[in-house]
């Protein structure tokens, strides 16, 4: 039996009976005719269906939705019902899941491209049910801005279901990324004043500069005879880990040392595998909740290791703080969280491990894409180098004040995110009914901004496939597009809490790298793929050469 047929059989025959506890249905012939044969059983499953999730009192996830192709009529001012939102037709329960398994069809690893293609076909607002996820995808910035205005005090983002299920099984706090409502607000308030204020992040500019400087020296040491860096991705992961360590623990983790800490290397290895496996688990039917699938077993193994090692880092520091160990200097961030009476010790550990996990994968992939774009665009690189050299003496410290004089550095990062938005869609679950593009979208709907689609839309960004940081310079930029570019960090009270930190470390390292190396790329083009965040689909073989062939850092 082919993989698709086997999956269809599970979905149409086995799953309903497992999920509803009812008899197995013999329905495959009807399924192929697209008859909505499971309607009765679906309704009977009601809110007990394990494929549905309830978040902050709103039910999200599976909904029986036949799909329609009706296009919105711009002359019709009446708000049309949700059923009329255009979108691909799917089967009951599985929706359009099989479209993602067809030969030459859409792929989970290319969801950003699937969203782009669907929006070209169905317009600026469409809906789709992919396995357990029903989503409304918006590709018009003005329409998505309505979602921003409606998100309320406790915005709800769809949980990362495998992550939540794992933590629930193990009795671990959900952490900042996945908690909701008051619990989320409590953790968020405690952390945000340390992370979102420029002044707070600026205090770490000196140690972050030192890490960047060390990383540049490290790169120089490990370039091979072709001036390429074998395993560049892992080396950049080390930098990201070392950098967040200076903030969370105010000490060096040792990733860039001659003999790097085995613990840190293991953390990196397990974290990479953890994110790679999460992508297919998020979109497939959560069969892992019923059978312990092989993929789930692997994911669980890596998650166990990430949590174990993450906790070792955090607990070591917490213990040193509690014991007043003079050889282990205190971390202001952790000390203050521990002193916060609204947070339990488990909250503090959960949050610190979350930050560690969120920081490494995101910033390292952002940097990889940035280096790739620069290596492919020598004129941009040269302009960037000129700007940095005019402002910064080699080994100079970059602070937020220095960065005010480096607009092109910022523009390069923005343009990288436009070309390769590592978070290709940002989302909310609606707290109340909302009109979008002339349709009524009911409370509880999962609405996503199709960032990749919008960033590659020639009407918004002329020559969208060209890397042109100039678009983002003052005077050239449409203010509406500026706010669109900010969506890479999410929005409102729940936007990325690491934004200030990430921008600072990326601007800083980018500046140091172009001051030291000329980057070039002579191999075949790299394509984006999803390992939860957008990553290059093959090892990046960038050439790093120094001006004189001599390293002078
Ligand atoms: C290139 C770097 C990064 C990008 C593009 C990025 C992007 C995002 C996005 C889009 C969200 C969802 C926001 C929303 O729903 O409105 C998010 C949430 C989050 N990010 Fe980042 N992020 C980055 C780096 C970091 C770093 C360095 C940290 C930690 C130091 C971090 C920690 C978090 C946390 C904890 C959340 C959950 C916040 C909450 O739900 O309250 N991120 N990030």
TrEMBL record:
UniProt KW keywords: Heme, Iron, Metal-binding, Monooxygenase, Oxidoreductase
One function term, GO molecular function aspect: monooxygenase activity
Entry superkingdom: Eukaryota
Signal peptide annotation: none
Cofactor(s) this protein cannot do without: heme
Record's keyword annotation contains Heme: yes
Binding site for heme: 496
The keyword Protease is annotated on this UniProt entry: no
Pfam families xref list: p450
Family named by the database record: Belongs to the cytochrome P450 family.
Protein name: Cytochrome P450
Organism listed in the record: Batillaria attramentaria
UniProt lineage: Eukaryota, Metazoa, Spiralia, Lophotrochozoa, Mollusca
């Amino acid at each position: 039996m082919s993989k698709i047929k086997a999956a269809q059989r599970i979905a149409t025959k086995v799953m309903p009976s497992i999920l509803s506890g009812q008899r197995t249905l013999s329905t495959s012939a009807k399924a192929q005719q697209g008859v909505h044969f499971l309607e009765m059983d679906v309704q009977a499953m009601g809110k007990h269906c394990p494929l549905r999730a309830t978040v902050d009192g709103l039910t999200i996830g599976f909904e029986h939705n036949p799909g329609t192709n009706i296009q919105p009529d711009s002359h019709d001012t009446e708000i049309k019902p949700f059923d009329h939102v255009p979108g691909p037709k799917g089967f009951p329960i599985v929706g359009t899941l099989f479209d993602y398994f067809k030969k030459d069809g859409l792929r989970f690893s290319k969801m950003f491209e699937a969203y782009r293609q669907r929006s070209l076909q169905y317009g600026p607002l469409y809906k789709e049910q992919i396995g357990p996820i029903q989503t409304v995808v918006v590709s018009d910035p003005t329409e998505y801005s309505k979602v921003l205005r409606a998100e309320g005090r406790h915005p709800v983002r769809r949980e990362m279901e495998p992550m939540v299920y794992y933590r629930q099984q193990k009795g671990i706090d959900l952490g900042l990324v996945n908690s909701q409502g008051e619990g989320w607000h409590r953790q968020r308030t405690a952390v945000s004043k340390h992370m979102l204020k420029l002044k707070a992040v600026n205090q770490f500019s000196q140690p972050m500069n030192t890490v960047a400087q060390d990383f540049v020296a490290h790169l120089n040491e490990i370039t091979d005879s072709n001036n390429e860096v074998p395993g560049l991705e892992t080396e950049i992961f080390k930098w990201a880990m070392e950098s967040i360590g200076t903030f969370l623990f105010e000490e060096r983790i040792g990733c860039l040392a001659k003999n790097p800490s085995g613990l840190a290397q293991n953390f990196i290895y397990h974290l990479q595998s953890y994110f790679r496996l999460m992508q297919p688990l998020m979109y497939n039917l959560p069969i892992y909740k019923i059978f312990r699938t092989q993929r789930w077993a692997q994911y669980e193994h890596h998650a166990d290791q990430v949590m174990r090692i993450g906790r070792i880092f955090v607990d070591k520091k917490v213990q040193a703080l509690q014991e007043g160990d003079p050889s282990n200097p205190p971390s202001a961030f952790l000390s203050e969280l521990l002193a916060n009476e609204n947070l339990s010790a488990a909250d503090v550990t959960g949050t610190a491990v979350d930050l560690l996990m969120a920081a490494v994968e995101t910033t390292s992939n952002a940097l990889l894409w940035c280096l790739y774009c620069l290596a492919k665009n020598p004129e941009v690189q040269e302009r960037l180098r000129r700007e940095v050299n005019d402002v910064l003496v080699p080994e100079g410290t970059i602070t937020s004040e220095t960065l005010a004089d480096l607009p092109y550095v910022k523009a390069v990062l923005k343009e990288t995110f436009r070309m390769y938005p590592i978070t290709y869609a940002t989302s909310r679950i609606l707290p109340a009914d909302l009109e979008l593009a002339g349709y009524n979208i009911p409370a509880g709907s999962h609405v996503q901004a199709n960032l990749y689609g919008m960033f590659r839309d020639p009407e918004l960004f002329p020559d969208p496939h060209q890397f042109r940081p100039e678009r983002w310079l003052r005077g050239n930029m449409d203010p509406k597009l500026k706010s669109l570019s900010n969506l890479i960090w999410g929005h409102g009270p729940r936007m990325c809490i690491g934004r200030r930190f990430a921008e600072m470390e990326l601007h800083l390292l980018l500046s140091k790298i172009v001051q030291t190396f000329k980057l070039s790329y002579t191999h075949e083009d790299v394509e984006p793929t999803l390992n939860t965040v957008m990553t290059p689909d093959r090892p990046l073989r960038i050439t790093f050469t120094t001006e004189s062939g001599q390293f002078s850092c």
